Amino acid sequence: MTRTTLSAIAFAFTTVFAAQAMAANDASVTRAQVKAELAEAVRAGNMIADESGALLNEVYPQNYAAQSTSTVSRAQVQAELAEAIRNGNMLASEDGTTVADLRPHTYIEQSIAGKTRADVRAELAEAAANGVLSRHIEA
Question: Do 14 and 60 belong together in one domain?
């Protein structure tokens, strides 16, 4: 036999065995199962990220942290958010600056809360007496 004939026979056997293996694999999985497996792989980050073969959860571990269940109800979270918005405690930038820090004139009652008018007048009089403020403030 020639080398070409042997190669053709080897190729034919390889093709037959590969086709049978693929047919046996595809018959047992439904479309819904494949969709469910894909959704789970995307959620868990088990998808190839780049040419190196690294997975998304290996390249970007901060995006795929272990999921923990919360003990706070939805109503409590919404109440906390509403209070943070009302007080200006929402982050305005990446350095930790809050909205109240950027626009303090909008959130004045937060700094004065708990003081009466008499308390504020007494503090003003004390500051003026100590020379911190001038008694005659022009508007």
Answer: yes
pLDDT tens readout for residues 60-112:
888 887 766 778 899 999 999 999 988 888 888 888 899 888 888 887 665 55
| 57 and 78 housed in the same domain | no
Residue 125 lies in a domain: yes
Between 66 and 48, the higher pLDDT residue: 48
Q: What is the 3-state secondary structure (H, E, C) of the chain?
A: CCHHHHHHHHHHHHHHHHHHHHHHHHHCCCHHHHHHHHHHHHHHCCCECCCCCCEHHHHCHHHHCCCCCCCCCHHHHHHHHHHHHHHCCCECCCCCCEHHHHCHHHHHHHHHCCCCHHHHHHHHHHHHHCCCCCCCCCC
In a domain, residue 108? The reply is yes
